[in-house]
């Protein structure tokens, strides 16, 4: 069993190392952080969605934006589309599960908003329909994927593609980058001196 622990940690580290070494991912992270900060300064918001573990990621990321990540600062506009069980079940029942995010984007999305869809395969039908609706309404679309990007590669304005086909390793890298995404938005919004603020330790 100790060999299992070592092997899985080695796989996680190898995936994270590949992300660490990818200038393309780094450049995209900075760009999506800048454009999301610009949108929020202009009164717009971030919408986030995912399935399964990626749904938990969506909620986790939005909590960092709305509450705080490392320091106290004003709340940032973000909504997880994975949390309202009445909307999710009504949409699933009346229109089908593929529409659970696109229906909410139709209701809540505004031109200039940002939609971040998270899918390890890049092929989740409900994320793809959400991307299509977001584009129709004039939102900027960002995909966090693995698996070469899947169908989302062509559906998104910006892609962060983890170089792996293993779901758990893709999700681990997604979480690290989601935290970094929030940090970049904070710094573009509040300035680089933000780094000097006292760090919060909680939870």
UniProtKB/TrEMBL annotation:
EC number: 5.3.1.28
InterPro entries the UniProt entry points to: GmhA/DiaA, Phosphoheptose_Isoase, SIS_dom, SIS_dom_sf, SIS_GmhA/DiaA_subfam
A Pfam family recorded for this sequence: SIS_2
GO BP, sorted A to Z: carbohydrate metabolic process; D-glycero-D-manno-heptose 7-phosphate biosynthetic process
Known pathway: Carbohydrate biosynthesis; D-glycero-D-manno-heptose 7-phosphate biosynthesis; D-glycero-alpha-D-manno-heptose 7-phosphate and D-glycero-beta-D-manno-heptose 7-phosphate from sedoheptulose 7-phosphate: step 1/1
Cofactor note: Binds 1 zinc ion per subunit.
UniProt subcellular location: Cytoplasm
Catalytic activity: 2 D-sedoheptulose 7-phosphate = D-glycero-alpha-D-manno-heptose 7-phosphate + D-glycero-beta-D-manno-heptose 7-phosphate
Protein's UniProt keywords contain Zinc: yes
A GO term for molecular function: D-sedoheptulose 7-phosphate isomerase activity
GO cellular component: cytoplasm
Cofactor: Zn(2+)
Keywords: Carbohydrate metabolism, Cytoplasm, Isomerase, Metal-binding, Zinc
EC class (word): isomerase
Organism superkingdom: Bacteria
Domain SIS: 36-190
Primary subcellular site in the record, as a coarse category: cytoplasm
Binding sites annotated in the UniProt record for substrate: 51-53, 64, 93-94, 119-121, 124, 171
Keyword Magnesium attributed: no
Family of the protein in this entry: Belongs to the SIS family. GmhA subfamily.
This protein's name: Phosphoheptose isomerase
Source organism phylogeny: Bacteria, Pseudomonadati, Acidobacteriota, Terriglobia, Terriglobales
Gene name of this polypeptide: gmhA
């Amino acid at each position: 069993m100790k060999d299992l622990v070592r092997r899985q940690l080695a796989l996680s580290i190898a995936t994270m190392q590949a992300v660490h070494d990818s200038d393309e991912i780094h450049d995209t992270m900075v760009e999506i952080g800048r454009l999301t900060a610009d949108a929020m300064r202009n009164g717009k918001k971030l919408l986030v969605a995912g399935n399964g573990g990626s749904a938990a990621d969506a909620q986790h990321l939005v909590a960092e934006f709305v509450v705080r990540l490392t320091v106290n600062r004003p709340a940032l506009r973000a909504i997880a589309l994975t949390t309202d069980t009445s909307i999710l079940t009504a949409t699933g029942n009346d229109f089908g599960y593929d529409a659970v995010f696109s229906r909410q984007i139709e209701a809540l999305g505004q031109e200039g908003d940002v939609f971040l869809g998270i899918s390890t395969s890049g092929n989740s039908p409900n994320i793809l329909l959400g991307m299509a609706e977001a584009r129709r309404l004039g939102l900027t679309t960002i995909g966090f994927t693995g698996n070469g990007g899947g169908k989302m590669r062509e559906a998104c304005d910006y892609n962060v593609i983890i170089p792996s086909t293993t779901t758990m390793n893709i999700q681990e890298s997604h979480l690290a980058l989601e935290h970094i995404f929030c940090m970049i938005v904070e710094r573009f919004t509040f300035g680089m001196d933000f780094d000097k603020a006292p760090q919060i330790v909680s939870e």
